[in-house]
Design brief:
By secondary structure, the protein is an alpha/beta fold. The protein contains 12 helices and 16 strands. The chain folds into 2 domains: 7-180, Rossmann fold (3-Layer(aba) Sandwich), CATH 3.40.50; 194-347, Rossmann fold. Strand 12 and strand 13 form a beta hairpin.
């Protein structure tokens, strides 16, 4: 199911390991003007790989990531806040930060990092060469850090051909981290060999975005449910296993903003009869609590059922479910994917340059 080498297939002892993580976390501003991370989910998901490397004798771990979509350097999108969160989540581990991603400052920061320590470099996207898949940037990062092994653990960027996903993998032995292995294995199993019945829920805004996923899962799903704005806008299917939401909650102007009670009950019945549920796309305008009812009910049904393999993917859906877990830690899901676009690309059969660049088993 997963044909790439992982950290478990190589000897990491005494190596300086470069890890591409995904710390593109949501931020909010406090009343005093300071920033805060509103969900540390992506940071926590990186911990198994970091801990594995440190426990198996890696000399130093240097972490790369991006945050947001900066146009040049932007203090509001500095990864320093993530380094502070990482230090909090790795008690006893020295965690440092340097406000560059290449050059003399990085070289000195790596030298100053104690054995068994972690160093987070500044936001890769402050440098325009990152998105250009620049070999020069990749070479500078490797030279500045002295890295001897590259670990791709940022699943959310594996569908991008960037310097930190492709160019850098050409310069060092390149393997997958535990998060990438888990995400790819779980998503591919849902598509290729699911525990049945398999129920697929597709919501969201645009049919054009979701049609490739519908086409991919239609032949393998026992039931495929269409909700969200797609259904509200009149999506139709003649396929017998497809259920399209039939009633909606509307606002004062008649806009259909959530799946209605009749459809919600039918969806819950289908979900309760499933062994595997893959959910991509919220069912209503969830940013307004008045129109989040169907999504809340489905998320609770899935989160309270430990017997179902529940896979949540898509940025809006994953974020929505993460927030529900913050309010109710008892909710459990098999996989909340960290990669919205990456999960969609993988499941739709599109190229995954960041995975293809890794060494095969």
């Amino acid at each position: 199911m997963f044909d790439k080498k992982t950290v478990k297939d190589v000897d990491v002892k005494d190596q300086v390991v470069l890890v591409r993580a995904d710390y593109n976390v949501p931020l909010a501003r406090r009343k005093d003007g300071s920033r805060q991370i509103t969900s540390d989910f992506r940071v926590r998901e990186s911990l198994p790989t970091l801990k594995y490397l440190l426990e198996h004798g890696a000399s130093k771990v240097v972490v790369l990531s991006h945050l947001g979509r900066p146009k040049g350097k932007d203090a509001d999108l500095s990864l320093k806040i993530v380094a502070e969160k990482l230090a909090e989540l790795l008690p006893g581990v020295p965690v440092g930060f340097v406000d560059e991603c290449r050059g003399d400052e990085v070289e000195q920061a790596v030298a100053d990092t104690p054995k068994g320590g972690v160093l987070l470099l500044e936001n890769l996207r402050f440098d325009p060469d990152e998105k250009k898949n620049s070999e020069e940037l990749a070479e500078d990062i490797v030279r500045s850090t002295g890295a001897t092994l590259f670990v791709q653990d940022g699943f959310a960027v594996t569908h991008r051909a960037h310097a930190s996903t492709v160019a850098i993998a050409k310069l060092l032995p390149a393997v997958a981290g535990l998060l990438v292995e888990k995400e790819v294995t779980t998503l591919k199993k849902a598509l290729e060999d699911p525990s049945r019945p398999l129920v697929t829920i597709i919501g969201g805004m645009k049919v054009a975005d979701k049609q490739p996923l519908i086409d991919k899962f239609l032949p393998v799903s026992d039931r495929l449910i269409v909700g969200g704005k797609i259904a509200a806008d009149g999506y139709k299917s003649e396929e017998p296993q497809v259920y399209v939401a039939e009633d909606f909650d509307v606002d004062s102007e008649g806009n259909k903003l959530d799946v209605g009670p009749v459809s919600t009950c039918k969806i819950v019945d289908m979900v309760n009869g499933a062994k595997t549920v893959l959910w991509n796309g919220v069912l209503g305008k969830v940013e307004d609590p008045a129109y989040a009812t169907a999504s809340v009910i489905v998320a609770k049904e899935l989160g309270e059922n430990r017997d179902v393999i529940s896979i949540i993917c898509g940025g809006d859906t994953a974020g929505f479910v993460e927030n529900m877990q913050l309010n109710d830690p008892e909710l459990h899901y098999t996989l909340i994917s960290t990669g919205g676009g990456a999960a969609l690309s993988l499941l739709s059969g599109e190229p995954m340059p960041g995975l293809e660049a890794l060494e095969s088993k």
